[in-house]
Amino acid sequence: MADNAILKTPRLRLSTFSDADAGDLYALHCDEGVNRFLASHEAIRTREDAEQRLLDYIEGQDHRGFSQWKATLHDGGFAGRAGFSVYPETSEVALSICLKPHLWGKGYASELAGALVTWFFENTYFTHLIAFVAAGNDPARRMVEGIGFSQRQRTVIDGNAFDCLQVLSPALARYARASA
């Protein structure tokens, strides 16, 4: 069988979702702790939401060449989702990582985040990438700041405060440093 991985890290593998993944996606989001720090455009609350979101991920991959991808451990176990989504308010591309709770605090998200940022700027033409971090989610904030994101603004989404952080493409970052 051919390896269809989009991205591999030392412990995880990202590949495109298929129609058969709705159950895993729904099960991931059934844990309210998973949805706690997500904005409404990222949260999945019902099986129907999971099925629709899965279609959106597959269609996004087909149209843009990137989307949210299925994250699996190297043994094949489902770990969550990670990749990119288009923030509906500004049409900017946002980094998003959503893993099963038993993987939290073990460096999996950091491992993915750095690899995803590198992949994004090597495979797209975008000048920057954003990430939303819920106010009070200090571990997530430290993680994205640790890979080069910086605060852009605080915003309110569905009544909840989020910090919008961004990282510039390497070429734009070099230009900004040279112009400063």
From TrEMBL:
Short name of any one Pfam family annotated for the protein: Acetyltransf_3
Record domain N-acetyltransferase: where: 12-169
GO terms assigned for molecular function: acyltransferase activity, transferring groups other than amino-acyl groups
InterPro entries recorded: Acyl_CoA_acyltransferase, GNAT_dom, N-acetyltransferase
Keywords assigned by UniProt, alphabetized: Transferase
Protein name per Swiss-Prot or TrEMBL: Protein N-acetyltransferase, RimJ/RimL family
Organism: Stappia indica
